[in-house]
Backbone:
C-alpha cells in the first residue's frame, strides 16, 4: 500500500516525534509498503537546522527506503508563543505545494501527526478529495497545552480555537494517540469511539539493553566509581518543568556521591544552566549520538523524569520508553491520578513518583534511591520486563500496520 506521512519532524532528529515517525516510516518501507514523507529539515530539539540542510530550500532525498520531501520553514532561536505559531505556519504554507504534488501518486492513507495541528486541514482535505483515508496521530495535545501552560492566553480565544480543533479532528477517518488518558481526551473532544485507538510509543529492546559493565561515560566524565548518577536526557523545553532539577541539585550539594547529569538541547537549557551556576554536582552535555544511546542511558543509576503539574495527561513523555529498556530506576514527578504515575508505580513498577514542582520531595526520594542499590536494581529489572512485554517496537508496529491496512481497505477499527 501507499502511505503518505505529513509532519514537521522526521529523522534524523534523535528525540520526540521525529525519532518515532522516522522509525515507523522505515519499518513500513522494510515491510514492503511504498512510503513518502513530507517534512521539514531537521532542527529539533536544538532549534537550529542541522548541518547539510537549509531552512530556505526544498529538497528530496531517500532515507531508509523512504522518499523524503523537505519543505522550507522559519526556525526561531528562542521559540515563544507567537514565534512558535509563525514557525508552524511557515511550514504549513511551504509544504502545501509538496502535498498537492502527490495527487498523481494517489496515496491510500494520509497520516499526519499533531503537533503541528496546522498541517491537519490540508491533509484531511487532500485525502478527502483524492479518495484516500486520513489518519491523525496525536503525540501532544498542543492546543490544550499552549493554553494550560500559559503560552497562549485568553479564554475567548481558547473557546474559539478549541471549537475549531474539535471540528477538525472529527473530520479524520482515524484518530490515534499514545496513552489511555489521551485517548479519553480524544473521545471528550467528540471523536467517535469506532474511529479512535491507542497507538503507544515503542522502544527498540534489542538496541537498548541493561549494561553488564559500567558505562563508558563514567570514565569520560571523571565520575568516581561509587558515584550515583541521576540522569536527565532529552528535550529541554517548557513542558518538562526543568527548573526543579536545579533546586534538587542545590539541595543535594551535601552528598557529593550523588551526581546529576543533564543531557539535551532546547529552549529551556540556557535557563537551567543559569540556575545551576556554581553547582559542582551538575554536568551538562549535548544530546548524544544515536550509536552511543545504550551507553548513554546506561550511565544512569536513576533516570529523572520531571513534568509540570499543568501538563498532566496532555502528554506522555516519550523518553520513558528508553528509560525502561535500559533497566534503570525512574524518579518522576506527577500527580497520583495521572497515567504517568500509574505506569511508573503500578504497571511497570519501575520507580518512584513525587508531586510536581516539589524539589524537596524529589531530592529526598533521590537521596533514598541513592542509598539503596538493591531497590534500584529491582525497580530497573521491573522496568526492563515491562518494556519487553509491552513496548517492543516490532510488536507495536505490526499492530499499527494491521490498522493501517484495515483503514486503507475500508475495514472498521
Residues:
Amino acid at each position: 500500500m501507499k502511505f503518505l506521512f505529513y509532519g514537521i519532524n522526521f529523522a534524523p532528529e534523535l528525540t520526540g516525534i521525529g525519532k518515532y515517525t522516522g522509525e515507523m516510516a522505515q519499518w513500513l518501507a522494510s515491510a514492503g509498503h511504498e512510503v513518502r514523507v513530507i517534512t521539514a529539515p531537521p532542527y529539533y530539539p536544538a532549534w537550529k537546522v542541522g548541518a547539510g540542510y537549509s531552512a530556505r530550500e526544498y529538497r528530496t532525498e531517500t532515507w531508509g527506503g523512504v522518499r523524503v520531501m523537505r519543505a522550507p520553514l522559519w526556525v526561531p532561536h528562542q521559540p515563544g508563543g507567537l514565534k512558535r505559531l509563525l514557525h508552524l505556519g511557515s511550514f504549513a504554507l511551504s509544504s502545501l505545494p509538496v502535498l498537492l504534488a502527490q495527487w498523481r501518486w494517489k496515496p491510500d492513507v494520509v497520516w499526519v501527526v499533531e503537533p503541528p495541528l496546522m498541517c491537519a486541514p490540508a491533509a484531511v482535505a487532500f485525502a478527502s478529495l483524492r479518495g484516500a483515508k486520513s489518519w491523525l496521530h496525536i503525540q501532544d495535545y498542543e492546543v490544550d497545552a499552549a493554553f494550560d501552560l500559559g503560552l497562549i492566553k485568553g479564554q475567548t480565544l481558547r473557546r474559539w480555537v478549541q471549537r475549531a480543533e474539535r471540528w477538525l479532528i472529527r473530520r479524520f477517518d482515524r484518530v490515534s494517540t499514545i496513552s489511555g488518558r489521551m485517548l479519553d481526551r480524544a473521545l471528550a473532544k467528540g471523536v467517535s469511539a469506532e474511529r479512535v485507538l491507542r497507538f503507544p510509543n515503542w522502544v527498540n529492546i534489542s538496541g537498548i539493553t541493561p549494561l553488564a559493565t559500567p558505562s563508558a561515560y563514567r570514565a569520560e566524565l571523571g565520575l568516581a566509581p561509587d558515584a550515583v548518577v541521576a540522569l536527565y536526557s532529552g528535550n529541554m523545553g517548557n513542558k518538562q518543568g526543568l527548573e526543579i532539577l536545579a533546586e534538587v541539585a542545590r539541595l543535594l550539594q551535601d552528598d557529593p556521591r550523588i551526581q546529576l547529569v543533564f543531557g539535551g538541547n532546547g529552549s529551556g537549557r540556557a535557563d537551567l544552566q543559569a540556575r545551576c551556576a556554581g553547582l559542582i554536582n551538575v554536568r551538562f552535555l549535548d544530546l548524544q549520538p544515536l550509536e552511543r544511546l545504550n551507553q548513554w542511558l546506561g550511565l544512569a543509576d536513576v533516570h529523572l523524569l520531571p513534568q509540570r503539574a499543568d501538563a498532566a495527561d496532555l502528554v506522555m513523555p516519550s523518553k520513558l520508553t528508553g528509560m525502561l529498556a535500559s533497566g534503570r530506576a525512574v524518579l518522576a514527578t506527577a500527580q497520583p491520578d495521572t497515567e504517568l504515575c500509574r505506569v511508573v508505580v503500578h504497571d511497570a513498577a519501575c520507580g518512584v513518583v513525587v508531586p510536581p514542582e516539589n524539589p524537596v520531595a524529589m531530592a529526598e526520594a533521590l537521596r533514598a534511591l541513592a542509598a539503596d542499590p538493591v531497590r534500584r536494581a529491582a525497580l530497573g529489572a521491573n522496568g526492563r520486563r515491562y518494556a519487553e512485554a509491552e513496548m517492543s517496537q516490532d510488536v507495536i508496529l505490526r499492530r499499527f500496520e494491521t490498522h493501517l491496512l484495515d483503514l486503507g481497505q475500508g475495514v472498521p477499527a
